[in-house]
Amino acid sequence: MTAHVVVGVDGLGSPALGSASHGVLHHAHCPVAVARPRGQT
Fold this sequence. Notes:
Radius of gyration: 11 Å
Mean pLDDT: 80
Order of helices and strands: EHE
Largest sheet: 2 strands, parallel
Structural class: alpha+beta
Strand content: 15-25%
Low-confidence stretches: none
Distance between the termini: 30 Å
Number of strands: 2
Strand order of the largest sheet: 1-2
């Protein structure tokens, strides 16, 4: 059983998630954290 999932973004400045991160975020049955590079909100 997965306790949680951490996904990353590419850090190219786009506010949108990639398709894989987006899919995990919306279909996971556990908490998901999205990691962004330092300085990017």
